[in-house]
Write a structure and sequence with these properties.
Oligomer: single chain
Largest sheet: 3 strands, antiparallel
Pfam families: Penicillinase_R (PF03965)
Low-confidence stretches: none
Protein name: Transcriptional repressor, CopY family
Order of helices and strands: EEHEHHEEHHH
Family: Belongs to the BlaI transcriptional regulatory family.
Structural class: alpha+beta
Mean pLDDT: 86
Distance between the termini: 53 Å
GO biological process, one term: negative regulation of DNA-templated transcription
Strand order of the largest sheet: 3-5-4
InterPro entries: BlaI_family (IPR005650), WH-like_DNA-bd_sf (IPR036388), WH_DNA-bd_sf (IPR036390)
Number of helices: 6
CATH class of the largest domain: Mainly Alpha
CATH superfamily of the largest domain: Winged helix-like DNA-binding domain superfamily/Winged helix DNA-binding domain
CATH topology of the largest domain: Arc Repressor Mutant, subunit A
CATH architecture of the largest domain: Orthogonal Bundle
Length: about 130
């Protein structure tokens, strides 16, 4: 959620700009230069976009490849993959995994609960059987 700073200008919430840069990369559909990303993230300086792209590369979320005199950037994974990795990270950092998962499941809508059950059943059916 955006806030206003002491000058009254819009300030992005933590991580929001990284999300906007990733969204621009996903929308591009292929490797793009930082200038193309900047065009998709209005009100952001070119140097800020470069900084965010560098951070995303360091986190392993974006790749950078030399092309001509500059670089092009591409996301490593799609949106669902990035969100899933974030969920795993939060689960790893959450302490008691059972308690975290129990709380998560208890707060699912009925529709999401049924979807999760179906996904777990499908996953179980596709797992190879262990030694007998």
């Amino acid at each position: 959620m955006a806030e206003r700073n002491d000058r009254g200008t819009r300030r992005r919430a933590r991580g929001e700009l990284e999300g906007e840069v990733l969204a621009a990369l996903w929308a591009a559909g292929g490797p793009v230069a930082a200038a193309a990303v900047q065009e998709s993230v209005p009100g952001t300086a070119y140097t800020t976009v470069l900084t965010i792209l560098t951070r995303l590369c360091e986190k392993g979320l974006v790749t950078r490849r030399r092309e001509g005199r500059g670089h092009v950037y591409a996301p490593v994974d799609d949106r669902a993959g990035v969100v899933a990795a974030g969920m795993h990270s939060l689960l790893d950092d959450g302490g008691d995994r059972g308690a975290v998962l129990a709380r998560f499941v208890s707060e699912l809508s009925a529709e999401d609960e049924h979807l999760l059950e179906r996904l777990l059943q499908d996953e179980q059916r596709h797992r190879p059987s262990g030694p007998a």
